[in-house]
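Dear Dr. H.,

I hope your travels went smoothly. While you were away I took the liberty of generating a structure for the chain from your last submission, since the lab meeting agenda had it listed for discussion. I wanted you to have the full record in hand beforehand rather than looking at slides cold. The sequence, exactly as received, is reproduced here:
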Amino acid sequence: MTTEPKKKKAPPPPYPEELKERAVKMVRELKSADPADRGVVSRVARQLGVGPESLRQWIVRAEIEEGRRPSVSESELAELRELRKEVRELRRANDILQAAASFFGAELDRRPKR
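The corresponding predicted structure, in token form, is as follows:
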């Protein structure tokens, strides 16, 4: 009798952006209708079949993107990643150029003087 190894389940695909936007909008509308209601996020998450913590994170991300909450937006994060990558590449190129300059400088010093 052979037993096959159990296959790991792939993580579920990310939620569609439309669902995230709709969920955030629903929470905002319900909170504006009754600001004292503390169970809005859990209720909306249950209705839409998403995790309440996921929904909370979507709300936080939306507030950051709209400038309502201090933090770095997705576009700023992407720009920061690009700039850091560029700095790494420039430093690497600079190191190569410095090594080449040192090498060729040493070669020039070894030439016989006239």
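Two observations you may find useful: The radius of gyration is 28 Å. The chain has a mean pLDDT of 88.

With kind regards,
E. W.
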